Each structure stands twice: as structure tokens, then as C-alpha cells.
Amino acid sequence: MRTYCVTGGAGFIGSHWCERLLSLGHRVVCIDNFADFYDYKIKISNVLQSTGTKRAFPYRNKKEDLSRLPDFVNGPAYKLVVADIRHSDELEAIFEQERIDAVIHLAAMAGVRPSIDNPLLYEDVNVRGTMQVLEAMRKHGVRKWLCASSSSVYGNQLKVPFSEQDVVDRSISPYAATKKSCEVVGHTYHHLYGIDTIMLRFFTVYGARQRPDLAIYKFTRMLDHGEELTVYGDGSTRRDYTYIDDIIDGMLGALHYVESREPVYEIVNLGTNHTIELAELVQTIENELGRKANIRRLPKQPGDVEKTYADITKANRLFGYEPKTQLAQGITRFVTWYRSECVW
Hints:
Shape: globular
Strand order of the largest sheet: 3-2-1-4-5-6-11
Number of helices: 12
Order of helices and strands: EHEHHEHEHHEHEEHEEEHEEHEHH
């Protein structure tokens, strides 16, 4: 059994990752600050699901709920710490108490459009917060980590599919710029302090527990409620939609790779090497729900890229990454979760 520190472990990807580590017999130290980006109760639900907690959680108010939650879920294999990665004293206390074998850093302010409205917050959390995590690792001798990057770093380049060798110096949103900054900072700590690193560029992840602000969740909810669908642009934008189970498989392969080798600094795409047009995505959700969308079109939003398209050759070569979930299959699984387990 190994002990893994997972930042952002109450989020969408983070909760699935914690669940997988626990299923493999490892110990998890989950750090999350339950920020007000969306309803904190969603993250509490994620924690309960990822830890297999069957007891109903009696919600009262945020301050009291977050103070009670660790007692509700903590056990020999799982420790939840409500903390902010920007606060070095909070990280210091965690790293002093725990013998951490590796860090999986998923905590971040997410979303392209919100980053345009509040760029300094994104810089503070995503860049400074990442450096605080790396500083804690440096001080306590933790030398293995995975860090979440994003397909957003590729911007609107014309060459496809996107390769890790491509120049990514033309970000079109503050969010993308912070993720590129984290890749650079990660390399600095690898070079100076021997921290073995894999930066994972995630491509449009979806599935159960997906954030409510993301397209698949929003479209499903609007269609299910008979609401008008708001679509930005003409529907021709394309995304490399990647199902959460495939992402978690890829992360596990990356973790095994970084733990078994040194020195390591790699940037790796995790996608499907296949793109879906927005109009086709809407049609797939329509087919699954048995409803026809009434679409309201608005101008394209600043910061949105035209296409994401992952070259996954490197991930396959390094650790055998092979995504298996087709979009229709993934949407069926998502809608099943939405109807049976989602209460928001």
C-alpha cells in the first residue's frame, strides 16, 4: 500500500481518481478547499461516492458541513483535509503528518470563460497554488508527481492532431496561460530538485459527476427539463471528448511510469484521437433522451477554441494508453448516472 496525496480530490476527475486508488488498496490523502465555483454540496456528494460512504449526509450549512465531513468519511485508507493549496502553512501541516509517496495535483480554478472575468484569481490558484504544492514536496522529499494540464494550451493552432511537440506559446485565455505556466514551473522543479513529473493534457473529459457548468451536463439538463438550448456559434466547433474511465486508466498508466523511472519529465496528451462536432454532440444527447432540442444560437464566446484533437501516440508508447469508450456509449453512461444518482 502506498500513500498518495490528491489535490482537488473532491472534484469531478479527482473523486474518480481517489475511488480508483482506494479500489487498488492504496491510501489517499485528499485535499480540497470546496470553493464556491459551484455548489459545495456537489463536491460532498463526490466524496461520499468516491469513498463508498452509504450513510446519508445531513446538510445544514457550508461551514458546519465542511467541519463535519472529515469525521464522516475519514478512515484507515482515506483522509480528507479541507485546505487551500495557496496556504503554505496548511500544506506544511499535511506533509509533516503524512508520509506521502507521490502527489497527483488536480486542484485548480477551471473554465475558460470564467478565467476571462477573473484572471488574477486563476493566476493565484493555478500558478501560485501549484508552486506551493511543489515547495511542500521539495521540503519533504516527495519526488514523484502527476499534474493536470489542459488541451486549452494548444490554442487555435491549425495543425492537427495536437502533438506534445507543438509550440504552445499562443494561449487565448487566462486559464490556458496558467496551465502552460504550470508545465514550465513543473520543469523547473524537475531540473532543480529532481522531482519526476508527468504533465497530463486532458482533452474535454466527461462522465458521471461531471461539473454542472460543462456542456454535456448543461445540455442534458436543459433537454431533460424541456428548456431552450443555448449554443455559442454555428455548431461547427469540434472537441475530442474523453470519457472519465479512459482518463483514469491513462492517469494510472502515467503514475506507474513516473514511479518506476528516473529522471522523468514528460508532457502527455490524454484524449481519444477523434473529434466530434458540437452539432453531433447535441444530436447524440437528443437520441439518448428521446427529445428534440430547441436551439438558441448566440455569438461565439471569447477564449473558446475551434477544435481540440489529441495525438495520443506518446501516451500509448510510454504506458500503453488506449481509450475504449465511444461517444454514444459514454453519453448513455452519463445519462444513466444523471437519471439515477445525480440529485442536483
